[in-house]
Amino acid sequence: MPVLVASDLDRTLIYSAAALALTMPDARAPRLLCVEVHESRPLSFMTETAAGLLTELGDAALFMPTTTRTRKQYLRINLPGPPPKYAICANGGHLLVDGVSDPDWHAAVTARLADECAPLAEVEAHLAAFSDPLWLRKQRVAEDLFAYLVVERELLPEEWVKELAAWAENRGYTVSLQGRKIYAVPKPLTKSAAVREVVRRTGAQLTLAAGDSLLDADLLLAADRGWRPGHGELADEAWTAPQITALPERGVLAGERILREFLRGARQG
User: Fold this and answer.
1) Which of 197, 236, 193 lies closest to 214 in space, CA to CA?
2) Which of 50, 77, 121, 160 could bridge to 46 as Cys pair (CB 3.0-4.6 Å)?
């Protein structure tokens, strides 16, 4: 039976230039591989060593990207190795099989959201009414499943996010601040639910996972073993659980360490 590796991507395996955290002298910086281009510009990177580890992992386990990105945003990433058989997009709203969304899974998810959460339009209206043009750059809806804002982080009042989280809690939504983005995501829309579905389909006997944000907590708890980097929301809150290893590495070197742990775990599994 296969080992399933379900990993978040942004700030877990791949990193924007701003998130690389290259604190070493320039001459000792790792060689980087660009894995995403957007509007003709390089956007996301991993180390060349990490790229080699990910290729090896494809032979040792069933690797499944597990991301909050929309399908369009995910499909512009060009990871090393063969295309994954399964991928989770939109925080579990879409389960991709050979690059195509499973319509039955998506229908089941949307039906549950309609039953258990306030309408997305209500959340959109609240964000529009209470965001300040001083720090708001964009307001977006992803796949008609959740909403997010792109903000100027240094101008964003800290209390604003806490107030939004309290408001959203009563309407069945989780708020997560990741870099320059603030997400408002329905609570039933989870990566872990989609991971359990892939476990059911594949018969995987061991699940390994990694992630850095509040939206990854359920993913890590659903795994047999998990890792989180030394940066991100979970690290900021010192979040942990019995099967979770908190790594000291930050930035792109954390991605490399996570892949080493995945490979070791898959081979031992």
Assistant:
1) 236
2) 50
Q: Is 158 exposed, middle or buried (0-12, 13-18, 19+ CB in 10 A)?
A: exposed
Q: Pinpoint the alpha helices (H) of the chain.
A: 48-60, 71-75, 103-116, 120-130, 158-169, 191-202, 217-222, 233-236, 252-268
Q: What is the pTM of this model?
A: 0.93
266 phi and psi angles, rounded to 5 deg = -65, -40
Lookup: tokens for 69: 């990105």
CA separation, residue 262 to residues 37, 79, 199 (Å): 26, 16, 17
109, 92 Cβ separation under 8 angstroms: yes
Listed in sequence order, the residues at least 6 apart from 159 whose beta carbon sits closer than 8 Å to its beta carbon are: none
CA gap 75, 99 in Å, rounded: 8
The b/e string for 91-110 (b: 16+ C-beta within 10 A; e otherwise) is: bbbbbbeeeebbeebbeebb
Percent of the chain with pLDDT over 90: 97
Question: pLDDT tens for residues 53-77?
Answer: 999 999 999 999 999 999 999 999 9
